[in-house]
């Protein structure tokens, strides 16, 4: 039996522990959910005909009468700490509450 076998076992255990614990602490964690619910946002804000991003990746659009028309559905989880995610969501919400209208095609 090698005299290094116990050291390798302990080092392997520590590495495994680091891989399990670190993603939710120092390195952040995955946040695959949107910052806010798009349908609720359309209903609450009444931004008819506007587009916005509920997660910094996908794009949603409200109908003129405040319903959710559509959203892209790209999987784009954010890897960040809880505080960074909270700040990210607050910034997205601020931007979404002052949306830029989409120009309708004049040819239709």
TrEMBL record:
Q: Secretion signal: which residues?
A: 1-28
UniProt KW Secreted keyword: yes
Location in or out of the cell: Secreted
**Its principal location?**
secreted
Q: Pfam families from the entry?
A: Pacifastin_I (PF05375)
GO cellular component terms, semicolon-separated: extracellular region
Has UniProt tagged this entry with the keyword Ribonucleoprotein?
Answer: no
InterPro entries reported in the protein's UniProt record: Pacifastin_dom, Pacifastin_dom_sf
One GO MF annotation is:
peptidase inhibitor activity
Question: Start and end of every Pacifastin domain?
Answer: 50-81
Arranged from A to Z, the UniProt key words for this protein are: Disulfide bond, Secreted, Signal
Q: Spell out the protein name for this chain.
A: Pacifastin domain-containing protein
